[in-house]
Amino acid sequence: MKHLLNLLAAIALLVWGTHLVRTGVLRVFGANLRQILANSMGNRFTAALSGIGVTALVQSSTATSLMTSSFVGQGLITLPAALAVMRGADIGTSLMSVLFSFDLSWLSPLFIFVGVVLFLSSKDGTPGRIGRVLIGLGLMLLALRLVVDATEPLLASPAIRGLLSAVSSDVVLEIFLGMLLAILAYSSLAIVLLIAALAASHVIKLDVALGLVLGANLGSGALAVLTTAKSAIEVRQVTVGNLVFKIMGVVAVAPFIGLWLRHVQPSMPDTTQGVVLFHLAFNVAMSAAFIFLTQLVAKAMEKLLPKPLPSASQMRPRHLDPSALSTPSLAISCAAREALHQADVVETMLRGVMEVISRDDEALAKELCKLDDTVDELYSAIKYYLTKISREALAEDESRRWTDIISFTINMEQIGDIIERVLIDVQDKKIRPRRNFSEAGLQEIGELHARLLDNLRLSMSVFLNGNVHDAKKLLEEKARFRDLEHAYSRSHLVRLTDNTLSSIETSSLHIDLISELKRINSHICSIAYPILDSAGALAPNRLRNSKLAELE
């Protein structure tokens, strides 16, 4: 029992070490890896090469799959290009299994020691994250050594030998077990290394090990499908298409395991190398054979998983991909896109306000008021999504972006509430009593409304790009709008003293309306403050004009 527990602990340590390396690399290089993937989609071959490189760093084809599928969900790359990336990703994880198959256990103490020193010196900084990667690598090397040591006493047990002999000679069962282990461990790399170690220790026969390796490859594809089960259709098309490729490969190769054992294995230096090189050869052959089928499989996926028709439900959250949460930099990008979606809904509400006022359209007013519920729902969804992103996993600029997104969505939610109040007032004080603004008053409201729309679009650009010049311009608009509001309030009072009937009837609504428009503009312009503050261009009470001039 003790020896079995030691083996299970070694396996758990191997899986945990793989997890540390994967999350550590994503935290240090996440944004750069995403940029590499996004910039390498010129053709299927460069896409595959980027998949090899990124997966070799991340040590997880599943993580690469989630990043790539999220790009497709955001419309940044096409489905065939994403499937080409996954062909390279499978080769990348195979190369890492070959590297770890060598006896590098002597590096384990060094990696762990240096990693712990770096991690303790700066837990939230880049050195700490690199230390996390080194700790993971050290634990993986240590775990592989412990697996070999723990299996030797187990082989002496007749019961264990009898159990292992019962598993052999059934390739379908071997593939199923390998797939199940990869899903449970959340890492095909860890399972392939474990299988190689067990085969080298003669715990399992070599033919059984190769069947389990095929299953582990299938398991990595199935794991990505399960992880993205609740994601958008575009995301699921990538993971399901990748699984189809893996199934095709396993079906094509499984009958020929015997040929590898008879003709290739005798030339291998040892059993471990035979297992990991079989894993590499399988993925290289599968990628080379199937990379020209990416377009065909993409079309099949689009028919199998068609995009839903446009509907009112599209107003609901659509960019908050739960599978992206494992890659914090990618999750931040998803939240930012959803925040812009929320702003689009607010813009729809704001644009409709003038139509309601000029046409006395009560039905449109009620429809626009309902959109405020959508704005609130999007705000809650974005806020909840952001709380699930580990703040410790974010770099300094990403953490600042996290705060900016929260601030932006709060402002949009409050603007939605103000617009709803305005629409209700217009219905109660203008439409139902059948009153009209004076011609001059309506023109003034129209001008303020047009400025609001321009400022809202500018604020969305500032939020998206962080341009200091645009942020300065947006803040200057706040002062101009305030001056206009004061001027138009005085003009309205002049019309009242002239006893203009329409101005008298709508006086209360007119004053309240331009005041509420000013409040909306204040929320819009407040989006500029974090950008200017980060650039060092904001003083407590005024802009530092000289600093802004330098930045421009």
Walkthrough of the structure:
It is built from 23 helices and no strands. The protein has 552 residues and is mainly α. Helix content is 80%, strand content 0%. The N and C termini lie far apart (71 Å).
Descriptive key words:
mainly alpha; 80% helix; disordered C terminus; 552 residues
Secondary structure topology:
Elements: H1 2-39, H2 44-58, H3 61-73, H4 79-101, H5 108-121, H6 126-155, H7 158-167, H8 171-185, H9 188-200, H10 206-227, H11 233-253, H12 257-264, H13 271-290, H14 294-304, H15 328-359, H16 362-387, H17 396-431, H18 439-465, H19 468-497, H20 501-505, H21 507-525, H22 528-534, H23 545-551
Q: How much strand content do the residues show?
A: under 5%
Mean pLDDT: 80
Count of individual helical segments: 23
Measured distance between first and last alpha carbons: 71 Å
Please give the number of β-strands: 0
The largest pleated sheet is described as: none
Helix-strand string: HHHHHHHHHHHHHHHHHHHHHHH
What are the low-pLDDT stretches, counting only 5+ consecutive residues below 50?
310-314, 546-552
Short overview:
This protein has 552 residues and is mainly α. It is 80% helix and 0% strand. The relative contact order is 0.08.
